[in-house]
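Thread: Newbie trying to understand structure tokens

Hi all, I'm a second-year student working on a class project, and my supervisor (Dr. K.) asked me to get a predicted structure for one chain before our next meeting. I've only ever worked with sequences, so writing a 3D structure as a token string is new to me. If someone could post the tokens and maybe explain what I'm looking at, I'd be very grateful. Here's the chain:
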Amino acid sequence: MSSIVLCADDFGLSSAIDAGILGLVGAGRLSATGCMVAGERFEADAAALRAVADRIDVGLHLTLTQLPPLAPVPSIDPTGAPASLGRVLGRALTGRLAYAEIAAEIGRQVDRFRAVVGREPDFVDGHQHVHLFPGVRRALFSLFDEGVLDARRTWLRDCRESPATIVRRGVEVPKALFIAALASGFAAQARVRGIAVNRGFAGITAFRPEAFAGTFPKFLRDLEPGALVMCHPADAAAPADASDEIDRARRAEYAYLSSDAFLAALAAAGVRPARFAVASVAGEGAGE
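---
Reply by user tm_fold:
Sure, no problem. This is what the structure looks like when written as tokens:
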């Protein structure tokens, strides 16, 4: 069996998400989760996460969109209000993000993670892939350069996939191609600093609840050891969350990841979820 990292995003965003992630961790079906430290449930549910943190990698899911920053980032919004993906991406692509402001906000989120979780983040990635954006990646790498983050302790998510793999999979092809293009050069910039990254990536969906059971097995095809597959589960038994536009999709993901069909898909693909240190060793050193 090859080892892959199966990472659930968005811990801390809501009680339904946190309950779903914790339930799947308890069942041995996830190997990582990323925390949104500005999420309304992060501090309240952190104790339950700390109780299982020896089983999984726990990282920082950096937010510059959807949630308000921990302090205002004027080059995104001078009021400190939550920013849309389009606004942040547009400003990143046109060079209108202030490097020092972004670096300071990433530093604040790292500090809050440490204060609440009680340890260094095992990894850093970005909500809506913001860590890949021009300007944001420079600020993120600067924290490693300045010793705020330690490459010996913290790895990064690389969202690069080959166009041929994306087209062959046939799942959200334009979206996946765009994200892969955003990730161009990210792994090389990490490697030169001695920062490990995953070897391969999958998990981009349209968040259609009815499609996930058929889509997920496609993510497992031809993965290298050390690859990362992302997911976004929420407890299917929790009350509906009208404020979350992908709430139904999250519940469908949880139901599938809790099912025998999920275990059968892993077995058919010859893969198993594992923490990054195990998966990267299987891949002969992720990112190398």
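A couple of things are worth pointing out once you decode it. The CA atoms of residues 220 and 269 lie 6 Å apart. Strands lie at 2-11, 32-35, 57-62, 123-126, 155-156, 201-202, 228-231, 271-273. Feel free to ask follow-ups in this thread.
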